[in-house]
Structure formats: C-alpha cells, structure tokens
Design a protein that fits this description.
Elements lengths: L1 E2 L2 H12 L4 E4 L6 H9 L4 E4 L3 H15 L3 E5 L9 H10 L3 E7 L25 E4 L6 H18 L7 E6 L7 E3 L20 H8 L4 E5 L7 H11 L4 E4 L11 H11 L10 E5 L6 H10 L3 E5 L12 E6 L6 H4 L9 H20 L6 H14 L4 E5 L3 H9 L16 H11 L4 E7 H6 L13 E7 L16 H6 L9 H6 L3 E5 L2 H13 L6 E6 L3
Parallel strand pairs: 2-3, 2-4, 4-5, 5-7, 6-7, 9-10, 9-11, 11-12, 12-13, 14-15, 15-16, 16-18, 17-18
Antiparallel strand pairs: 1-8
Helix pairs in contact: 1-5, 3-4, 3-14, 8-9, 8-11, 12-13, 12-18
Length: 540
C-alpha cells in the first residue's frame, strides 16, 4: 500500500520510470510518507542513515560507484541544510544526486511552526534544478507536478551529471497508507547527441603551437582509462600532466619536478608552454596551478559545462564542450601537431628525475611512510580495490605514490565526508574491496559513517593519526606555537579504538614500522563480515 498523498505517489512513479535504484533515507515524520513509498515500491533499495550530513555523503559514494542518480531523502527544516556539503561536492564532481526534502505547506512557513524554514531555494546555488511540487487537486496541477519532477530528473542527467532538489510540501494527516497502486505518469525522456569533434579555431591553435602542455585535472572514474590512453597518445606531441585523480595508472610527478627546480634555483621560463590544453576539473597541486598562471600561455578549456566559464590559468582563449559520454581520445584524433622536441625532452628529463627521487626516498616511520608502504602493497596485490583518499596530507601523498585511480572529494570539500563517501561506495559495491586512507581530523569529524548496520567487511580504513592537522605544518608562513596547534591544527589526544568498539568495527593498531607492515597486510587480506580500521599512530 502507498501513501494517500498524490504528489508523493507521482514522485515515486517517476523516480522508478527514470531508473532510480538507490535511496539514502533519514529519520523524520514529515518525510515518512516519502520513505514509506520508496521502500514499498520494490524497485528502489533504501539505506537508512540518521546523520543527514553523513547520509548525503553516503549517497555521493553510491553515485560514484554506480554513476546513476541516487536519492537522499530528508525531513523538513534544518535537515535539508545538513546535506549542503555533499551536494556542493556532487556539483563539482558532476554526480547525479537527487535531494528530496519534505516540507510544511507554504502557508505555515515563517509562522513560528516547528521545523519550518524557506526550503525551495535552500540549495539553489548548488543544484542544476530546484523545484517545489504542488499537492494537486485537479488535472492541471497533476500535469504541473509531473512536469516539474521530470524537469528535475532530466537536469540530473543532462549533458553533464548534476545534483537536483525536489521539495515536497505535505499536508497533515501524514500517515494514511491506503492506496493500492501508483498512478500512471507521463515520463519525459531526452536524447543527447554525441559531440566528439572540436572547432576549427581550436584545431588551428593547436596546429600552430609547438610547445603544448596538456593538463588533465580530476575526472570521473568512468574516464580513468580514457585519460591513460589520451596521455599515451599525446605524449610524443606534447607534455602531459595528470594526477592519480584523473588516470587509471596514477599520475606524473610534475609537482615534485617543480619543487626540485625551485629548490635548485632553475629559471623555469624555458619550461613554459606556448599553449595549454586543460581538461577536466581541479588539480591537487597548488604549485602546478601557480606555474600554469605564471606561464601566461593561452589556454583552451575542455569542459562538460561551457555555460560556466572557468579560467584556471587566467589566460583562457577558448572553451570546448564535450558530453558525458563522449570519448576524450577521439576528440584529439587526427590533429596535426609539429612539436618542439627539445621542449618535450626537457620536461621528460625533469619528470624522470622526479620519479626516481620519489622512488629513492626512504622516509622514517611517518604519515608519508605509511602511504608509501601501503601503495607498494597495493601494487603487489592482484585484486580490484577502489581506493578513496581524504583531503589534506592524505591525497597529497597519494599524488606521489598511487599508481591507480584515486577517488577523492576534491571538488570543494575539506575534511568532511570522506569516510561516509567511502562507506556509501562500499555498500553499492559489495563484491569489491573499498579502501579509505584518511587523517585523524577527517576520521573523527565523520565518525558517524561507521554508525551503520548496512556496512560489510569490504570496507577497510587506514587511519593515520598524528593527533592534529599535520598539513598545517607545511603551510608557508603558518606560525608554530601552542595556540596554533589547538585553535588551527586541532591538536588532540584521541584514538579510534572506542569508536570501533561501539560500532562493531575491527580494529588494528600500529605504533612502529614492523606493526605497520603487518597491519597493512592484515588490513588488505583478512576475511571478515564487518569493516576494519587500521589506526597508524604517529608521534608529533
């Protein structure tokens, strides 16, 4: 049986017709009829999470795994505001989240009623489409309700995937579940023609340039093998930068190369390109971004959303849009390039030197050593493992040592949500090992991710606990004193043992190199039905 609320039944039917298979649902009374319908329809798998912020990141992780629209359903009031960090990340990672918020009827907003705020535009700056559907009482309103829901769900899977918001006012009584079947609804579909070509102006710019630098920023996982093929195909005609957040076989150490040149006092102007081709989203390397801007080279941006002008190098001259399903490799097929081989050789020598320097570096027991040894073990395992890195130091060490694609909430997020995203990914990929590498502030901030009975033994976590935000020790100009340690770096004395115990999570601790070696092997190979955390304790 379904709710007697017609707008909820129309919504349920259209979610099913648009192929939604997963919903993360949060407790509440106003959204209870929506949750009831999602669970009762038999076509949508529901995962219950109490913490709305964590729940939204769970949905983000499921969307990363499936690359399909995933619902996050919350009750009215401030519950909706709690999903904003994950929605912002979804916007910048081009992930199809469908935020469904229950709401009070419009006449009760701002009337001192409980859990009421102005919800319709609460996420407006973060979503591709935001609609408030009516409670219909006639055929015109039923058509309007269906049209709005279709518009939102089509925007979720447009030329680029994006989050959307569907706000659902619900009048009392709320809990009458007496409707046998869902209504027949008008499903609106769309077709996006494939792009796969570039303009004559761009072809001319490329063919007239001989010192080309191709930069590939963060890209969605479905493109990771395309990036590797593109880098291989273009390497003889231009210099190619990419990080593990874009390619299936890791990245190239351009950040280390730039750091070494800076330390040696080398004039980097001879390394400047005369054209930059920028593909994808952000780079982790701040040093790399600064180099691109200093080069003053004209830049062509290849993007999935040409309506938004992003100029990461400050010298943008052309935007080329490609679609969600377009093949990056074919975009650059048959482009005539006459490269300056001395420019390519200059960069290749620097990148090879940086690669060897990284390989030769043998750090002592530390955060860096933990990531290095973990990645060496991953290289030796013949297993498909999905690896998520948290922000700050974790992902920076990943750019040095990871030889695989790295998932990271690098769009806009800081320390929040990494553990929940990894957990959500793991429940959508139950047959695969999902590994999360995370620092202590990120872990403790997001500890509610482990407060979930849906988790299985395929989620593994390496927590590196150096008792504060270690990245702040590397921020240029940051003073180092007791006040900074506490107020800025979040210095603490906590460990994760109690959190793991209360949530039935396996726990391993390492305090030296030998324990770390054994702990990593155990973390990656043990058979268990519950998640496992390896906590690597590092003294400051």
């Amino acid at each position: 049986m379904y709710s007697d609320k017609e707008n909820i039944n129309i919504l349920t039917a259209l979610l099913m017709s648009h192929g939604v298979e997963w919903a993360v649902v949060c407790p509440g009374s106003r959204n209870a009829p929506i949750v009831h319908n999602l669970n009762a329809c038999g076509r949508i798998r529901c995962c219950a999470i109490t913490d709305e912020r964590s729940a939204a990141f769970y949905a983000l992780g499921i969307a990363q795994s499936l690359r399909k629209p995933v619902v996050i359903c919350v009750t009215s009031g401030s519950a909706l505001l709690n999903v904003a960090p994950a929605v912002a990340e979804a916007a910048y990672q081009h992930l199809p989240l469908v935020v469904i918020s229950a709401d009070r009827p419009a006449e009760w907003i701002d009337q001192l009623d409980g859990q009421t705020l102005r919800q319709p535009a609460a996420l407006a700056d973060l979503v591709a489409n935001s609609v408030t559907i009516p409670e219909p009482h006639n055929d015109g309103q039923r058509w309007h309700c269906q049209r709005l829901i279709n518009e939102a769900l089509l925007a979720c899977r447009g030329r680029t995937d994006a989050p959307v918001h569907i706000n659902v006012p619900i009048s009392e009584p709320l809990f009458n579940y007496n409707i046998d079947t869902l209504p027949a609804v008008a499903h609106i579909d769309s077709h996006l023609s494939r792009f796969c070509h570039m303009s004559d102006k761009t072809k001319t710019l490329i063919s007239q340039s001989d010192r080309i630098l191709m930069v590939i920023g963060q890209t969605g996982a479905p493109r990771q093998h395309q990036v590797e093929s593109l880098a291989n195909n273009m390497s003889g005609a231009m210099v190619v930068w990419h990080e593990p957040l874009s390619g299936s076989l890791g990245g190239v150490p351009f950040d280390m190369a730039l750091q070494m040149m800076e330390a040696e006092g080398i004039d980097i102007s001879s390394y400047h390109p005369n054209l930059i081709i920028y593909i994808g989203d952000t780079l982790v390397s701040k040093r790399g971004r600064q180099f691109l801007r200093q080069s003053q080279a004209p830049t062509i941006l290849f993007t999935q959303d040409a309506t938004h002008v992003a100029d990461p190098t400050q010298h943008l001259v052309m935007i080329e849009e490609y679609g969600r399903d377009d093949d990056l490799v074919s975009l650059f097929a048959d482009i005539a390039i006459t490269p300056d081989q001395s420019f390519i050789s200059l960069w290749n020598e620097r990148l090879q030197h940086a690669t060897q320097t990284i390989a030769d570096l043998q750090p002592e027991y530390s955060y860096r050593w933990a990531v290095k040894y973990l990645e060496e073990q991953l290289d030796d395992l013949y297993l498909d493992i999905y690896v998520h890195y948290a922000n700050s130091m974790a992902v920076r060490y990943a750019t040095l040592y990871a030889n695989h694609y790295v998932y990271c909430n690098r769009g806009v997020n800081g320390i929040e949500g990494t553990l929940s995203t990894s957990a959500g990914f793991s429940i959508a990929s139950p047959d695969d090992l999902v590994l999360c590498v995370i620092g202590d502030l990120s872990f403790f901030y997001d500890q509610n991710a482990l407060w979930n009975r849906n988790l299985g033994g395929n989620l593994r976590v390496m927590l590196v606990n150096d008792h504060g935000g270690g990245i702040f020790a590397n921020v240029k100009g940051m003073p180092h004193n007791d006040e900074t340690d506490i107020m800025v770096a979040g210095s603490h004395t906590a460990d994760a043992r109690g959190i793991c115990t209360q949530n039935d999570i396996g726990y391993i601790q390492a305090t030296n190199i030998d324990q770390l070696r054994m702990g990593i092997v155990q973390l990656l190979t043990m058979q268990t039905h519950r998640p496992v955390v390896l906590e690597v304790l590092i003294k400051n």
